[in-house]
Write a structure and sequence with these properties.
This protein is an alpha+beta fold and 83 residues long. It contains one helix and two strands. It has a two-stranded antiparallel sheet with strand order 1-2.
């Protein structure tokens, strides 16, 4: 195991608190081989489980050269209301 495995590459001040914390943190690390690692820390108020998966998939689509995500987001929150 790497001796510094538990240490973050960069600590964002205030990101460890629950109240008043940032809504989203993104870190992209470029690798020497040309690839990259995409890390995401998301506040649950930003998205549900499906949205959490859809966001990195959209980033992946754009990294592949697509001009838009292959699955478009749905912005019709009124569909979630109960009658």
């Amino acid at each position: 195991m790497c001796p510094c495995f538990e240490e973050p590459l960069y600590y964002v001040p205030g990101s460890r608190e629950i109240l008043g914390s940032l809504l989203i943190l993104i870190q992209v690390t470029r690798l020497r081989c040309g690839g990259f690692v995409f890390a995401l820390r998301l506040n649950h108020k930003m998205a549900d489980g499906l949205g959490l998966l859809q966001f990195p998939n959209a980033i992946s689509d754009m990294a592949k050269g697509l001009s838009a995500p292959s699955i478009q987001p749905i912005w019709q929150r009124e569909l979630l209301t109960h009658y």
